[in-house]
Every structure is written in structure tokens, then in C-alpha cells.
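ok so I'm stuck.
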Amino acid sequence: MAGQIIRRLKPEEEEILRKREELATIRATLAERELELVDLRRDLAAFEGRYLRQVGTLYAELDEWKARISELRARLHPSAAAREHAQQAREQARQTHEEAHGKASETRDFKPSPDLKRLYREVARRIHPDLAKDSADLERRTRFMAEANRAYEAGDAEALQRILDEYHDGADTVEGEGIGAELIRIIRQISMAKARVAAIELELATLRQSEIANLKKQAEVREQAGGDLLAELAASVREQIERTKKEYEALVKVKVNLA
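replied:
not stuck anymore, here's the structure
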């Protein structure tokens, strides 16, 4: 409009605008990284569950037969070393059984829908605890974020939307008093969010280099070549079980002959 006077922004106001833009960017990045981390954790857990069901339970059976052999040998040829070896074999069998049968029953395939991912990104962008302004806000955000994580892992899009609606991003509406206070608050939020992004990226790198992640990669490569790595591993362990059972049966015959 002609004659309208446009007020020039003060330097501190320009700085707040820049920091708000930076905060919005880091919020988006943080939400994306949180989603990436949750997906990777669940993806690896689901693969580990399949591995334990197909292969791990067989290793548990193999260790059980090995423990029986060690215990039988300790009875046939009593000695402190034989008893110790038998105890170690039995403990190994117990641990393998608990891990294989426990984790295998706890994990399931995780295939989040695009809508579920979109909702989770929005929740993380608005509610993430690292964006808290004070202790009360941190407590509130932490509670809502924990609920959101559980809803996402359960594949419950309605619960995620309900959490988002209940929160209403109330913390963002609190401007504080004065430009200086708001600027300090935004700077701290940016710093905390950047630190969390760095921590997530480190955890992502660690997970991707883990043993189960490497096994998953091998399985994917084998699948692309038309094979099934887990089925092949299972077949190999079954062969070991058969050999071990025959060894045990041979020792039983020795024991019977000595009786």
C-alpha cells in the first residue's frame, strides 16, 4: 500500500527468525533420525526372531545333546576336569535354550505403513523431549514420547494420532518473556536436538555393524541369489545334531557294557 511504512527488524529479531528456521530444520532431522532408529531396531529384532526360531532353537537342541554327552563322560570317567566340563556344557545349554526360546517368542515382523511413519515423524517433530523448555515440559514430553514409541511399535496409528491430539504441541505456544529469553531457549533447544541427532547417528552406525545386522545382510544377499541362508544354516545344524545324537548313543552302549 502506498505510503505504508515498513518497520525494519531489529538485529535480535532477525536472529530469532534465523534460529527459528534452524530449529525447524533440526526438528525435522531429529524426527527422521528417531524414526530411522526405531525402524532399524525393530527390523533387526524381527530378523533375530526369525533366526532364533529357525536356527537358534536347533543350536539349543545341539547344546543339549552336547551337555548330555559331557555328563555321561563325567560318569564314565570321573574326574574334577570332567565334572567341570560337564557343568560348563550344561550351563551353555541352559543359556542357549533361554535365549532361543525366549527371544524367539517375543519378536515379530515389523512392517510399518507409510501413514504410521508419517504420524510418528509428526509426533517426534512436535513432542520430542530434547525440545523441552523446562523440567515440567521435559517430563510431559518424555511421557508422551514413551507412549508414542509403544504405539508405533505396536502399529497403532489411532493411538499415535490420539497422542498427538492430546499433546496439542502446548509447549511450543509458551513464548516466555522478552526476545532475549526466547532466543536463549531456542538456542538451547537447537543444541539439545543436535546432540540427540549425533547420538542417534552413532547408535545407528553401531547397530549396522552388529553381528545380527551382518547376518541379515548375508541373508539378503543369499536371497537375491535365489537361496535361503537361514534354511541352509538350519540344515547344517540338524546334521550336527544327528552326529551328536549318534555319539551320545554310542556312549550309552559303552555305559551299558560296563554295567
